[in-house]
Write a structure and sequence with these properties.
YkgJ family cysteine cluster protein, Puta_zinc/iron-chelating_dom, UPF0153_domain, 28% helix
């Protein structure tokens, strides 16, 4: 499956604990990544400074559903289910 155009849910919904260029402490869940362009494309896609977490998160029918809103909700639920206690 390929990413949906103008989505960016995976760059907004989950927390990222590793450094991101411009966000040295990573980012909290629900915060838009600074490397997400206005058209919701990753500005560091394919570059070595892209966090491993981002490269490991691949689009799927379960995660992406049929809309950006679905993907945001799905990833938000996953975030809550996997956060440390």
């Amino acid at each position: 499956m390929e990413c949906r155009s103008n989505c960016g849910a995976c760059c907004t919904a989950p927390s990222i604990t590793s450094p991101i260029p411009g966000m040295p402490n990573g980012k909290p869940a629900g915060v838009r990544c600074i490397q997400l362009a206005d058209d919701n494309r990753c500005l560091i896609f394919g570059k070595p400074e892209r966090p491993a977490f981002c490269g490991g998160l691949q689009p799927s029918a379960d995660m992406c559903g049929d809309s950006r809103e679905y993907a945001i909700a799905w990833l938000g639920e996953l975030e809550l289910a996997t956060r440390p206690q």
